[in-house]
Amino acid sequence: MSDHGRVIVVGAGPVGVVAAMAAARRGFAVTIIEEATEVMEDPRASTFHPSTLEMLDELGIIDEFISRGLVARYFDYWDKPAHELVARFDHEVLAEETKFPFVVQTEQHKLSRMGLRRLGEMPDVDVRLGTSFETVEQTATGVVAHVRGPDGPERVEGAWLIGCDGGRSTVRKSQGIEFEGYTWPERFVVLTTLFDFADAMGCSPRAYLADPHEWTNLFKVAGDDMQGRWRVVFPTAVDETDEEALSDASAARRLAGVWPDAGAGELVHRKIYRVHQRVAASFRQGRVFLAGDAAHVNNPIGGLGLNCGIHDVMDLLDTLDEVTRGAEPDLLDRYERRRRELNIRFVQDQTVNNKKRLEERDPAVRRANLDNLRATAEDPARARAFLRRTSLLDSVRDSQAIA
Ligand SMILES: Cc1cc2nc3c(=O)[nH]c(=O)nc-3n(C[C@H](O)[C@H](O)[C@H](O)COP(=O)(O)OP(=O)(O)OC[C@H]3O[C@@H](n4cnc5c(N)ncnc54)[C@H](O)[C@@H]3O)c2cc1C
């Protein structure tokens, strides 16, 4: 049994499994509590930036993670109505700053599965699927989580509790913490198709298409069969119903708007999401912490939300480790000082601006935005600065400077 104390992680989504692995590797005993009985496969994150790949490397899972996805050195911006490539960014300009000058596109459910399998092989790790967190009590030296498993209510004792239980976080609500921000009036539709956009249009595996009427994001993922498929993300109209947005006719119309033949491609999945920009008013209440979507949510343009969540828990476990080894408890506030501010400065700011840039309606502003992207991609120094920010390398490096 570890003498480092027990960390209770609520939620075995990708942030929770990374938190649990990071805790176990630092010598904590771990209980991870997940209400579902199996990993959800809905199409959400697939873009993992260099800053996050460095952390997955530290956890010893990078080779398996890369082998289950696609390595994407380039990403694009396109002018959708003109069917024209505007800018292609090459992560190779980051080669002197990171061991991973590329993005890896691996679906998030693969990370959760990989993590759960590895946690199952680790000593002092207790994985509880089919178990819901209900509430938590705190004492001066620890926490008691009240959970409900297949055999009814239970108490789980630990030193710390981390809420990685997603945007609707029960942990956050149990602490009475506000989720400040707003919800976009439109929803985002994700269509998954076997139509090969790279083959048809010559785009990179990640491409952002600006369009004043209906912007689009294209992502290639490997799929569980490793045969390749494309996720295509669109906004709905504000007054469009979910049923209309997900209908065969809408799907075919939207895909054909990206590339004429795409409407006839085989559609393998469709899903609609409500999208928010929200940050918890506080990331810590005593021995209870929030991380990942429980702490912050944002629109997915730029692929930042999960990356930031993984950065949260890596920073938090370092902090808990330092305090457990004797650092002053005041250090615990550093987690919120770092992670809340960086989420607002990098993730909220960039995702809102990414959306505005893609949907810009004013022709002059739109032209200036696209010209600016083109000029940035063509100038190696500007491209490097741009990619340091979009890949959250600056965010992680800046966080070290916040004491
Ligand atoms: C279309 C789309 C595309 C995206 N693309 C990207 C991308 O490319 N890159 C990126 O960085 N981000 C992306 N995101 C965001 C990313 O999906 C989320 O940030 C990520 O899922 C957050 O992970 P999480 O572990 O914090 O939360 P979740 O994935 O929501 O996991 C929370 C877990 O907690 C469990 N849980 C909830 N309540 C309880 C309870 N009471 N007790 C026990 N368990 C509980 C849930 O069952 C779930 O397993 C995208 C999102 C969408 C919608």
TrEMBL record:
<protein>
    <submittedName>
        <fullName>FAD-binding monooxygenase</fullName>
    </submittedName>
</protein>
<dbReference type="GO" id="GO:0019622">
    <property type="term" value="P:3-(3-hydroxy)phenylpropionate catabolic process"/>
</dbReference>
<keyword id="KW-0503">Monooxygenase</keyword>
<dbReference type="InterPro" id="IPR002938">
    <property type="entry name" value="FAD-bd"/>
</dbReference>
<dbReference type="InterPro" id="IPR050631">
    <property type="entry name" value="PheA/TfdB_FAD_monoxygenase"/>
</dbReference>
<dbReference type="InterPro" id="IPR036188">
    <property type="entry name" value="FAD/NAD-bd_sf"/>
</dbReference>
<dbReference type="Pfam" id="PF01494">
    <property type="entry name" value="FAD_binding_3"/>
</dbReference>
<dbReference type="GO" id="GO:0071949">
    <property type="term" value="F:FAD binding"/>
</dbReference>
<feature type="domain" description="FAD-binding">
    <location>
        <begin position="7"/>
        <end position="347"/>
    </location>
</feature>
<keyword id="KW-0560">Oxidoreductase</keyword>
<dbReference type="GO" id="GO:0008688">
    <property type="term" value="F:3-(3-hydroxyphenyl)propionate hydroxylase activity"/>
</dbReference>
